[in-house]
Design a protein that fits this description.
Radius of gyration: 25 Å
Order of helices and strands: HHHHHH
Number of helices: 6
Helix content: 55-70%
Oligomer: single chain
Strand content: under 5%
Shape: rod-shaped
Structural class: mainly alpha
């Protein structure tokens, strides 16, 4: 496997937050998906292409959740209010956190909603199917002439996807860490008091 592809695979794994798996028991851990025939390098590229869509999905789902939680808790508005409350002992800490949190929240939203370099739903699906079709082809003349083009197309898609997933995942981690700092400073959200009952009229 070329160093470029190995680096891309490692980048995708880190971006998705993958951790090394425990060794599988004997007889377990086989790839549940039928891997097409081909060289070890081509099979690794095929797997990398297959992983793009779920990696993007996980990163975007986490960003959506963080944005939704921020809106539901009104985190930015409450932090701004606390930073203005000069008499509050936590006001200085809130003022220090405010620009960092505001920037992280905005960047996370921009990264989520921007135009992605690959289709965020399909990932490299079309390129994977074309590459796989050539790998399974029994027409050796067609296979020889088209394999290079299909390989380059899939490699290009994986290369474009990896940095985007990495940026989204890192933004999620930064926002998550800052949110924890902010929540430690903010007072609990107030619970609305029930309205007094209206006396019944005779």
């Amino acid at each position: 496997m070329h160093a470029t592809l190995a680096a891309l695979l490692a980048s995708l794994a880190l971006a998705a937050g993958a951790t090394p798996a425990d060794p599988a028991p004997p007889g377990e851990g086989e790839d549940p998906v039928q891997v097409p025939p081909g060289s070890a390098e081509d099979q690794a590229l095929w797997r990398a292409g297959q992983a793009v869509a779920p990696d993007i999905g996980r990163a975007r789902l986490r960003a959506n959740k963080l944005q939704w939680e921020a809106r539901q808790a009104r985190t930015l508005e409450r932090l701004e209010a606390l930073a203005r409350a000069e008499a509050d002992p936590a006001a200085k800490k809130a003022a220090d956190l405010l620009p960092r949190y505001r920037a992280a929240l905005a960047f996370n939203h921009q990264t989520l909603t921007r135009q992605w370099p690959v289709d965020p739903t399909r990932g490299c699906g079309y390129s994977v199917m074309a590459f796989e079709s050539v790998l399974y082809s029994s027409d050796h003349r067609r296979r020889t002439s088209q394999l290079t083009a299909a390989r380059e197309d899939l490699q290009d898609c994986v290369t474009r996807a990896a940095p985007a997933v990495k940026v989204m995942a890192e933004s999620n981690r930064d926002l998550e860490a800052l949110t924890a700092e902010v929540q430690a400073v903010l007072p609990p959200m107030g619970v609305a008091r029930p309205k007094p009952a209206t006396p019944a009229r005779n």
